[in-house]
Amino acid sequence: MEATIATENTGKEAWTGGGKKPLDASYGKMMMWFFIVSDALTFSAFLGAYGLMRFKFIDSWPIADEVFTHIPFVHGHFPMYYVAFMTFILIFSSVTMVLAVDAGHQMKKGKVTIYMLLTIIGGLIFLGSQAWEWKNFIGGTYGSLVMQDGKIAQFVDASGHQIALEEFVHKSTSDQRVAHTKSNGLWFVKDVGAMAPFTVHEVIEGFKANPDISLRTEQINLDTKHKTVLSREEANQFLTKAAGVVKGANLKVNEYGKTLFADFFFFITGFHGFHVFSGILINIIIFFNVIVGTYEKRGHYEMVEKVGLYWHFVDLVWVFVFTFFYLV
Amino acid sequence: MTQEHAHESHTGLIWKVFGILSLITIVEVFLGIVKPESLHLSNFLGTSYLNWIFLILTLAKAYGIAWYFMHLKQEKAGLRRAIVWTVVFLVCYLATLLLIEGNFVGDVLSDRYTKWFY
After folding, report:
1. Global pTM?
2. Residue B113 lies in a domain
3. What total of structural domains would you count in chain B?
4. Bridge-partner residues for A246, per DSSP?
5. Which class would CATH give A25-140+261-327?
6. Contact residues on chain B for A111, CB-CB shorter than 8 A
7. Taking CB atoms and an 8 Å limit, are B70 and A48 in contact across chains?
8. Contact A59, B106 (CB under 8 A)
9. What is the value of ipTM here, to two decimals?
C-alpha cells in the first residue's frame, strides 16, 4: 500500500491532514462543509419531493394560511404570525452564534460564553415553538368529513368561512362508541387512534338542522385560488358518500386536506427539528468546553466556528422550509 | 480567513445583516398575509408573481446567511465555488425535473381521473 501513497501520514497529525490546509480551510472546517453540502442536498431532495406532490395536486393542495392559524393565548384566525416569530428566533440565534464566533477570534472567553448561552436558549425556544405548532396541527381546528374515496370536505357558514363541528353538531344520546384501549384485548391492533368527536350520523343530522351551512371541497378554483364552496344540493349529495369524521391530522388522515401534506409536514419539519435538537446538544457541549477553557488552552476558538457553521446551516434550511411550507 | 482579518471585530456588519434579514422576513410575512390580488392571481413561468417574489427574497436571505454568517465571503474563492456551484447546480437540476414531472402527472390526473362531484 505504501507505494500508492504520495506522502505518508502517520502518527499524531493523521487526523489533521498533517496540518495542511488546502484552500486555507482546516481539516475540520473542510469536513463540516462536506457534511453541510451533502445535508443540503438531502433537504433539497425532501423539498423537491414536496414540490413534486404539490404540482401533482396543484388543484387541491391545502392552503397553508388556513392550516397554521394559531398563536398562543389568543383565539382567532392568525395566519403566519407564529411561524414568522419562529423564523425570527432562529435568525436571532444565528446572530448570537456569529457574535460568539466573532468574540472567539478576539479570544474573549466571557463574550463567547454569553453568546453561546443565548444561542442555546434561542434554539430551545424554537424547538418548543415547533412542538406547539405540531400539537395544534395534530389536534386540529375545525374537524371535517372524509369521503369514501379519501377526499376531505369541510364545513362553512353562509359567508364561506370554516366552522367547527362543535358549533352545529350535537352529540346524540344513542352514541355508544367507546375508544379502543389496549387493555381491552386490542393489543394486536397497531393504530388504535383517537376517536373522532362525532359520528358521521350525528354530523349529517347537525347539517340538516342548519340550513345556513354548506360544504367546501378540496378543489381550488384556479382563478380565485380559493377552495370551492358547494351549494346545499351538491353538499347533500356529498353527505351520502361520507365515510368518516376526522379532527386533526396524523400520518393517515388530515382534516385540512391531502394526507400527503401532513406526511411531508411531519417528515420535513421533523427532520429539521431533529437537526435543531442535535445542534443544541453540540452547542451545549461546546458551551461547557468554552467555560472550562479548552479553546483558551488550544489557542484558538475554531471549534466554535465549526459548530457555528452547522447552526447557521440549520437556520438556512429553515428559511427554505418556511418559504415552501408557509409562503408559496 | 487570513491573519489580518482574524482579530478585527465585525459586530457592526453582523447587526446590519441581521437587520436586512429581519426586514426581508417582515416583507415576506406581510405579503403572505395580505396576498395582493394583482401578484397572487397572476401567472409567470408556471407560478404567480407573488411566489417568484418569495423565491427571490428567500435566495437573498440564503445569500446573507451563507456569505456573512457562514463566512463564505472570507473563504478562498475556490472553496466558495466548490460549495455554492455544486449545490446550486444539483438543486436546479433536481427541482426542474421534479416540478415538470409533477406538473405532468397532475395534468393527467385532473383531466381524466379526478372527479369532484358525486
Report:
1. 0.89
2. no
3. 1
4. A144
5. mainly alpha
6. none
7. no
8. yes
9. 0.91
